Amino acid sequence: EKDQIKECYFRDGIRKIDFVLVYEDEHCEKTEELSSKEKAKRRNKRNQVEQQEKWRNKFIRCLKQTGVTIEEDSSVSEEKTIHYFKLNCPWHLLTYYAEELNIRAPLQEIQIQSFNKRCCYEKFHLPNGMVLDVPKRPKLYFTCTFRKSKISNFLGNDNHDTYFSATERGRIMWEILQTTLFGKKKRAEIGIERLLCDGVFTAAFPLHDGPYRLPKPIDLHKDLEKLNKRQILYEYWARWGRWYKYQPLDHIRDYFGEKIGIYFAWLGFYTAWLLPVAFIGFIVFLAGLIGINMNPEAKDVCGSGNSYMMCPPCEGCKKWPLSKSCIMMKLAYLFDNNGTVTFAIIMSFWAVFFLEFWKRKSANIAHHWEVMDYEEEEERPRPEYNARAPTLSVNPITGVVEPHFSPKQRLRRMFTGFAILIIMLVVVVIFVLSVILYKCLIGVVMSHSHDKLIHGEVSTIMRSVSGALLNLILIMLMSNVYTAVAEWLTRWEMHRTQTEYENALTFKVFIFQFVNYYSSIFYIAFFKGKFVGYPGHYGKFLGIRNEACGSGGCLIDLALQLFIIMVGKQAINNVQELILPKLFQWWQRRQVKKAFGAEQKSKMTKPWEKEYLKLVHYEGLFEEYLEMVLQFGFITIFVAAFPLAPLFALLNNWIEIRLDASKLVCEMRRPVAERAQNIGVWYEILDALVQIAVITNAFLIAFTSEFIPRILYKYEVGAGSLKGYTNHSLSYAPTSAVSYTQKTKKNSFKSLGDCRYKGYRDWEGHHTLYYWKLLACKLAFVITFEHLVFFIGRMIDWSVPDVPESLQYKIKREHYLAKQALADNRDNSMNNKGESSNSSM
């Protein structure tokens, strides 16, 4: 362990490495045999390198002038040299910037309370297998904002090496790097991010706390002191064997900062809330599977023989008996029964309760990690904004001259970006329509096929599955294309700060992904089968009859679409997260081996050399949040059609937590710790999804499932029974309806007045009075359902405070104790001064 600690220090073993800057210097080749164009390119590149070297030298010189100590190291080969600048922040800079950044300092140690409540297990005297005692838990203190003038009042001020944690030192060092000049101040040539964008430096990162693998041999019960923080996170969090254990949130926050800690706290809270609804959904599905043969509607259809002769499904097709759809009617019961409807209602309330209780949980976390009062300071302009802004202007807040871009011109660009977003959404809709046409054409081809294996139920399932797979491929392709387009558009719009940039990008990407992933599902849920028409008056699109629902209803198609898109997307993302980092690291090692040779590469064992070859945490948490929010939409908006959605989400999240943990601990460079109070704009997006989910579930139950029609028939026509429901829901084709047959080469027509179709119409094709009565019941259900859920949600929001009452008292008491501690320390220091003066007299 001592060797590991020494590796994180300068050569003198005293000064700690707080940050590492890296740049590569490629060795120039001879240019005698090059053409004139190649020589010109090489000359331009040399000029660029000279400018980069000029900026780099000035940046390093300014860093030294601020007081940062620097030690240089390098890895040399015939092709290139990799230079490493190891940076150390001395004590006087740490104290100065700690006050500037409002870092909190400890006053008094207090007892740590666990995030993971055990009261339910303790109350019933049950063992909690999810609890994991993680060693070296960060201590918890009463704190207040650091003040250099009152440093004697804080705990641990006598040890300068350990007073500030590694995350705090890294945050301070990043602040220094962000405010250091490398060119002319009037041109806002300032900050490490601009230098990274321009290739002056190839990397800037803090070091991990040693290796993540445990030393062998080791006894975890005896040798805990030998473990560093990274090894503890790997052993007790990132390993796959810990998939069922509580996350060590305090350790995560202590090592990676509050922003990453809050993400994992939210993901763990969301996953825990999925447990009960995943269990209920599985029970509902299992109950439907058990009662599949007891469904009275399926019994009626299966035993009907040729009693219900259905109208031809396409031009030139023949009538067919409804009894052939026996299997589909049974499968329909899996996704359309009283249990699934009840579960959809439960999930609507679950979504409302989830957000309300997350607000309380978030308040507890923010207080526990002392970011409840955290506010983002005045942000600096983005490096790309500084580089591309055409004019200079005085910042009215800071008074500093900085690059400026006209707000009117930015507004015009934002409108242009919005227009491009609309065009991309239209492209998505066109793709959805193309998939619909594909399924219609496949249906026509299968209907005219002489192969009996692809008729009936098999034909319907094959069309649905192939259409969903094709749709998934188009969704993933469009997702990658549009994400690149959205990033380019957001950069082109010239947003001044990183927060403005991220919010604009989040809006574009989420709106697109919402339409991209959910448009085909919305089509099946609310539009498919609604514009089919009736015999003799079928609706058509581009000369092809509109797609109709199968004999078992549209919920089967909806369930298949949900399963393939949701589970397929999650599987693809997990494979990418598992394989791509390893491929990237393999490629990096291969390039290093090619440049330095196998023997030289094996000698690159220093921590900064190893970390340089790892993945960069550039994308932050945007992709992780986006993936989880889209999943939240799947399990709340369309859960009425797929009760197993929460179960698949739960299984995915167990994998997702370990994948993300493994990436951060093992495969990525250590990110700079960032502070955050909550999950930010994603909460508003989740709240919008909950509102959409309540409305969607109401319409799904009323208009897509057979729940309302069955209830109305049962209590108005069937005298409490569903006997005769199938016959009642089928209409006879109008006497004027005709169909083309293929018995002769000439066009021959015959009456289809004896065939049946789904709907409530009379012999003339007009809607019956019962249809309007049913429509009124459906609309009444939608209005009652959504008003009830929203009313209960508002009552919960009004009656349950966002900050628990116990936490409010705790905050007030801590403020009081902090004042008392400062006052006592001040009094003691005054008494000591008085005693020393008396003794001197």
From TrEMBL:
Pfam families: Anoct_dimer (PF16178), Anoctamin (PF04547). The chain crosses the membrane at residues 263-290, 339-358, 418-445, 465-485, 505-526, 628-651, 679-703. One of its GO terms (cellular component) is plasma membrane. Keywords: Cell membrane, Glycoprotein, Membrane, Transmembrane, Transmembrane helix. GO terms for biological process: chloride transmembrane transport. Residues 252-814 form the Anoctamin transmembrane domain. Its main location: membrane. One of its GO terms (molecular function) is protein dimerization activity. It is a multi-pass membrane protein. It is found in: Cell membrane; Membrane. The keyword Acetylation does not apply. Residues 9-249 form the Anoctamin dimerisation domain. Belongs to the anoctamin family. PANTHER family: ANOCTAMIN. This is Anoctamin.
